[in-house]
Here is the input.
Amino acid sequence: MKFAKGPSSKLAKDKLTEHEGYTCEGPSLGPINRATLMRDPKHLLFTLSRYKYLSKMLTGKEYICEIGCNEATGTLILSKEVKHVTAIDYYKTFIDSCKELYDQLDLNISFLHHDALSGLPNCQYTDDGKYDGVVLMDVLEHIDPKQEDLLLKKLTESLNCNGVAIIGIPSIESQKYASPVSKAQHINCKSSEDMKIFLEKYFGNVFMFGMNDEVLHTGFPRMCQYLIALCVTPEK
Here is the structure.
C-alpha cells in the first residue's frame, strides 16, 4: 500500500498496511448496474437497501428462490443470510452475465435461465422440491395483469407449508414521477390496498410496508414510493 507524502501518522499507516490482506479480488458490477451507478447512484443504494431488509426477514431460512435476479447484486446480500439461493431470470442476458461474473467464486447461489410463469424450478436440496422462501422484487410491475394470478399460483405451489414470500413493487402513486422509460415498462403497479387484497388470495397473512428512498416504514401508504409485502401461510 502506497501513501501520499506528508506528516500523516506513521502508526495509522502501519496499522493499515498490516491489514492489506483483508482486501480480496472479486467481480466488477454487471453492465446494467455500472450504467445505474453512473446515471443515478442513489438508485443502486435504494435497491440494495431493499435487499438488506428482505435478507434479514429471511434469516434462518434455508432454501430460497429469487424470481427476477437481474445481475444478482442484491442476491449476494440475500445469500449471506440463507443456506442456498436459486436465482432465476426470464432474460438470458442477465443469467449469462451472472455466470460470467460469479461462477468462478464459491457462492451458495445457482443461476438458472427460467420463466417463472411456467412454474418455479424444483429445489434440488429438498425431498419435495419446495422452497422455504420466494423473493420477487421489481418483477410484478412488469407482469401482464392477465397473468399475475398464474404467477402467484406457481409461486405458492413451490413453497412449503411454512414458506414465506417477499414481494416488492413501485407504488401506483409513484408513477406520476417516474421516467418515461419506467412508465412504459411498469404495466402492473398497484396501491398498497390493492396489493394486499390481491396477495391475500394466495396467503393467509400479508403484512404491508412502504419505502421512501432507503427508509422502510409503515407510514401513510399513498405517500410511499415503493411497496413491500411480507406474505406468510401460503394457501394451497
Remarks:
- The first helix runs from residue 10 to 18.
- Residues 41-234 form a domain with the Rossmann fold fold (CATH 3.40.50.150).
- The chain has one domain: 41-234.
- The helical segments are 10-18, 31-39, 41-57, 73-79, 92-102, 148-157, 180-185, 192-199.
